[in-house]
Amino acid sequence: MKNTKNILIEKLHAFENHPYKVQDNEEMERLAESIREHGVLSPIIVRPKENTEDEYEIISGHRRVMASKKAGITEVPALIVSLDRDAAAIVLVDSNLHREHILPSEKAFAYKMKADAMAHQGWRSDLTSCQVGAKLRTDEQIAADTNESARQVQRYIRLTNLIPEILEYVDEGRISFTPAVELSYLNEQEQYDLLEQMEINDCTPSLSQACRFKKISYEQGLTPEIIAEIMSEEKANQKEMFKVPMDSKVYPQRQCQTNRGLRAESLRALLQSPSAQKRAKLIRRTAYDQTPKDRRCAPRRTA
Fold it and tell me: What is the Cα–Cα distance from 221 to 223, expressed in whole angstroms?
């Protein structure tokens, strides 16, 4: 059964636990302004809400409903469909995956919601096995629907095991996708211990550190002390580097003088820094004043 009619916004309810975030931002303001001028051009999709007479659950159109509220609209056009919750969940996920900007957490929970709904419908949900000639697994079908590999779908679903605070780091781009997948194997307490060290050190784990955390967690369990020790290590992408422009036309003697001058300027800048870590690096860096190349360039003593 399908039919379209205008429904009062007060009769509409958000789909329970839907994975997409409806944010009140500039994009929402633009959508509200468009609806204020032209109305809701595309009907939302809803289904009758169980145990009610004239109330509905939104399947597609959560953003349009919020924008309509901001625009002062009291009712919106809606396509009413008779779907059970599992079928509605699949439609909800598929109708939003085409959006241009989708957060990793949204995609993760969307894939999980669709996989769970398909499993309830009788699809294979054993994501770690593959049998020749067997019915497609849920991850394989989701992959076929989204142009992603089944392995990538599994990796996104892994992100749903992250605590909300670390998942927010992923959405903000402060933790890359691959390290985040590795961290998803830590238990909840280990993740909160890691979060504390991330905040103390104001840094996030590299892929190498994330893999070590996963391995240690599996073999013996992570303690706050182990996490602190690993997080205190200097990562390659955080080391301070001084790039010296190389000019093939510069003579060796002049090149050495240029290198020493640039190094001296860098050292003076470090001396002004209150950071204890930088001071420690400075001491190590100045313990041996000249590089081998400098010594080769230095004039030889004559008898």
Answer: 7
pTM of the predicted structure, to 2 decimals:
0.70
CB neighbour list of residue 104: distance below 8 Å, 6 or more residues apart: 156, 159, 167, 170, 171, 177, 180
Tally of domains in the chain = 3
Domain that holds residue 282: 252-297
Q: What is the pLDDT of residues 74-119, one digit of tens each?
A: 999 999 999 999 999 999 999 888 777 889 999 999 999 999 999 8
Q: Are 49 and 8 in a shared domain?
A: yes
Same domain for 34 and 64: yes
- Reported as a single tens digit per residue, the pLDDT across 175-198 is 999 999 999 999 999 999 999 999
Residue 179, domain member (yes or no)? yes
